[in-house]
UniProtKB/TrEMBL annotation:
Keywords: NAD, Oxidoreductase. SUPFAM superfamilies: Formate/glycerate dehydrogenase catalytic domain-like, NAD(P)-binding Rossmann-fold domains. The keyword DNA repair does not apply. This is D-isomer specific 2-hydroxyacid dehydrogenase NAD-binding domain-containing protein. Pfam families: 2-Hacid_dh_C. GO terms for molecular function: NAD binding; oxidoreductase activity, acting on the CH-OH group of donors, NAD or NADP as acceptor. Residues 102-271 form the D-isomer specific 2-hydroxyacid dehydrogenase NAD-binding domain. It comes from Pseudoalteromonas luteoviolacea NCIMB 1942.
Length: 306
């Protein structure tokens, strides 16, 4: 058996070295430099080319290099192939702190005061009054984010495809409850997994259901957002602002209107950065599970896509 690393768009020297240290008795190769594709039973993947999967006749496990599996063409995999993802508890805390910081920054008018400072303009104002945060997606990241916001005195509601029950969080579920969930929130945080059902979910129709003062915070995937619809909603004062950490094209092109828009805060996909040692430990555990034919850690339900 060999392990194939196909994590594109980045330098993987550190990753390869740490993997070799963690599983020294396993042959590890990096795409596209592989001596024998028929020997590959385990692939560590992110944004792998679609034509890779048909070249791996003995593939057993695909391990996502991220917390989601949208970087893997699940529909190209054989039914016998299992898929796992990374779960990093520190990631959840980092995400919650990022969301909290930007909710507070908007509530306390930090962006407004920064603009005033650049112009030497002195104008004190009270903090924004809205205190209702809505979270789209109540998976591990969403749950921890909700808990942190509740601890800091915010009123929190959450929406998910299936019903969830979280302490001090008003939980909504399914399409029938989405409009009610959106109707009275001051901040909308997107933490949904990216699936065919959620792609493009942050669109003009959804924005029309939000209060005009609402600030949209997208920390999930850039593909959740229809960028033109967001810009139109901001320009027409249908939304109060946006905080964007993820984008359909990354890095964000230098001429993109988000860079200069007065109501948009851009950060370079830093809301939650996975710890390398955590990643290596989980990958090594699943490589050993593949070898021993035992259950994987953090296996994905392929019918749901997460």
């Amino acid at each position: 058996m060999s392990v194939l690393v196909c994590v594109t768009g980045r330098n993987n020297d550190k990753l390869m070295a740490k993997l070799s240290d963690a599983i020294p008795d396993v042959k590890i190769e990096q795409w596209p430099y592989c001596e024998d594709l028929s020997s590959v039973q385990f692939v560590l993947a992110w944004n792998a080319p679609d034509n890779l999967w048909q070249q791996l006749p003995n593939l057993k496990v695909v391990q996502s290099y991220g917390a989601g599996v949208d970087g893997i063409a699940l529909d190209k995999l054989k039914p016998c192939v299992s898929v796992a993802r990374i779960v990093d508890q520190k990631l959840s805390v980092d995400m919650a702190e990022y969301v909290l910081s930007h909710v507070l920054a908007n509530k306390l008018r930090h962006r407004e005061y920064a603009a005033n400072q650049s112009e030497g303009y002195w104008k004190p104002r009270r903090a924004m009054g809205g205190n209702e945060v809505g979270i789209l997606g109540l998976g591990e990241l969403g749950k921890v984010t909700a808990e942190v916001l509740v601890r800091h005195g915010f009123s929190v509601r959450g929406w998910s495809r299936t019903q969830k029950d979280l302490p001090k969080v008003a939980c909504y579920a399914g399409e029938n409850q989405l409009e009610t969930f959106l109707s009275e929130i001051d901040y909308l945080v997107c933490l949904l997994p990216l699936t065919q059902q959620t792609k493009g979910m942050l669109n003009a129709k959804l924005f029309s259901l939000l209060p005009a003062n609402c600030v949209v915070i997208n920390v999930a995937r850039g593909q959740h957002l229809v960028e033109e619809d967001l810009l139109a909603a901001l320009d027409n004062n249908k939304l109060g602002g946006a905080v964007l950490d993820v984008f359909s094209t990354e890095p964000l092109p230098e001429n993109h209107p988000f860079w200069s828009h007065s109501k948009v805060t851009v950060t370079p996909h830093v809301a939650a950065v996975t710890n390398m040692d955590t990643v290596i430990a989980q990958i090594a555990a699943n490589v050993n599970a593949c070898l021993d034919d035992t259950p994987l850690e953090n296996q994905v339900n392929l019918s749901k896509g997460y």
